[in-house]
């Protein structure tokens, strides 16, 4: 009897349960959590006896992937793999969010997962679940067939309704984006600014960073540190580091502790690591060959370490005379 692993959502999580098993050449657990393989991926691979692959270094064909383990904070990776039909396990307790939120469904995605949410089960239980899902799929196929038949009869009405529904859907998605992404981010920024202005944290941070943030050479050092190849993928996920630093530096510029002329080079300095964790994902989206991903990822990281300080210099010279 083949081994089957059941993965359920953790505390505050979403989705699931997922039933994972090896089937033919579908025998790999992919970890997309940075340079190191996540313990959750290792645990699932151990239970299934499957090969564990670090997706940051090596690309794996979609038809060979049992599931993908991510640590996404609510950006593109949450919905990228569900869109491709690959079972996705997010170790963060994140529900449907990001630009691909509509693909994050309970039957393909589960979040907030810990080792306590992973267990070996009997094959019969998964068969019952698959039968229920198959019945639901057949019902949906019949329903879609009826809709297609109606569309063939009413071609003109269908064309008009398609345009109207597209406009309505665009407006709906725009409102959802504002509610679920823009407004929470505005609230986050407001809280950070309030804490900085009224707790005195901004003053301490400004004093600690003043040797670096108050000079061009200091910003170059920050860019160099943020661009270190083994460090930049760890600083990139969720854009947390650059969000906090940008708010801190912006508030200090407004107060007058940091010169306004350093605003543009400071922006380049704290954003060197942006996208460093997304390189292998982006290459796989473009259907790059495994060897291209293997060599392209470190090449990109090394190039960012070189171009980061150069961008700070360019920003400094471009800001001359602006303020």
- Strand content is 5-15%
Basic shape: globular
Mean pLDDT: 77
Low-confidence parts, pLDDT < 50 over ≥5 residues? 128-140
Count of individual beta strands = 8
| Helix share, percent | 55-70%
Distance between the termini: 72 Å
Order of helices and strands: EEEHEEHEEEHHHHHHHHH
Structural class: alpha/beta
Total individual domains: 2
GO molecular function: protein-N(PI)-phosphohistidine-sugar phosphotransferase activity
EC number: 2.7.1.69
Organism: Tepidanaerobacter acetatoxydans (strain DSM 21804 / JCM 16047 / Re1)
Pfam families: EIIBC-GUT_C, EIIBC-GUT_N
Descriptive overview:
- The chain contains eleven helices and eight strands.
- The protein has helices spanning 39-48, 77-83, 123-153, 155-199, 201-213, 216-226, 232-235, 240-255, 263-270, 279-285, 290-318, and strands spanning 4-7, 18-21, 28-32, 51-54, 65-70, 88-90, 109-111, 118-121.
- The strands form two sheets. A five-stranded parallel sheet has the order 4-3-5-6-7, sandwiched between helices. A three-stranded antiparallel sheet has the order 2-1-8.
- Helix 6 runs antiparallel to helix 11.
- The protein is globular and about 70 Å long.
- It starts with a strand and ends in a 5-residue tail after the last helix.
- The chain crosses the membrane at residues 174-196, 216-235, 247-270, 306-322.
- It comes from Tepidanaerobacter acetatoxydans (strain DSM 21804 / JCM 16047 / Re1).
- The modification Phosphocysteine is found at residue 72.
């Amino acid at each position: 009897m083949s081994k089957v692993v059941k993965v359920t959502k953790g505390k505050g999580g979403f989705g699931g349960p997922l039933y994972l098993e090896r089937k033919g050449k579908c025998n790999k657990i992919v970890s997309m959590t940075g340079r190191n393989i996540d313990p959750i991926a290792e645990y699932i691979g151990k239970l299934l006896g499957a090969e564990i692959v670090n997706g940051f270094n090596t690309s794996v064909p979609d038809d060979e992937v049992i599931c993908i383990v991510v640590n996404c904070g609510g950006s593109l990776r949450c919905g990228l793999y569900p869109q491709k039909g690959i079972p996705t396990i997010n170790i963060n307790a994140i529900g449907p969010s990001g630009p691909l939120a509509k693909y994050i469904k309970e039957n393909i995605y589960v979040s907030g997962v810990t080792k306590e949410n992973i267990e070996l089960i009997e094959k019969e239980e998964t068969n019952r679940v698959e039968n229920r899902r198959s019945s639901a799929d057949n019902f949906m196929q019949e329903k879609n067939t009826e809709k297609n038949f109606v569309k063939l009869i009413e071609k003109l009405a269908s064309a008009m309704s398609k345009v109207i529904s597209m406009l309505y859907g665009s407006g709906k998605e725009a409102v959802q984006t504002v509610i679920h992404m823009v407004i929470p981010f505005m609230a986050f920024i407001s809280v950070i600014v309030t804490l900085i202005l009224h707790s005195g944290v901004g003053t301490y941070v400004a004093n600690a960073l003043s040797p670096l943030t108050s000079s061009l050479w200091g910003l170059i050092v920050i860019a160099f540190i943020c661009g270190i190849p083994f460090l930049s993928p760890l600083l990139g996920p969720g854009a947390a580091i650059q969000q906090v630093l940008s708010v801190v530096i912006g508030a200090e510029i407004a107060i007058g502790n940091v010169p306004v002329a350093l605003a543009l080079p400071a922006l380049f300095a704290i954003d060197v690591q942006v996208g460093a964790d997304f390189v292998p994902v982006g290459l796989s989206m473009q259907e790059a060959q495994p060897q291209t991903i293997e060599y392209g990822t470190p090449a990109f990281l090394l190039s960012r370490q070189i171009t980061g300080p150069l961008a700070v210099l360019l920003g400094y010279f471009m800001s001359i005379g602006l303020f």
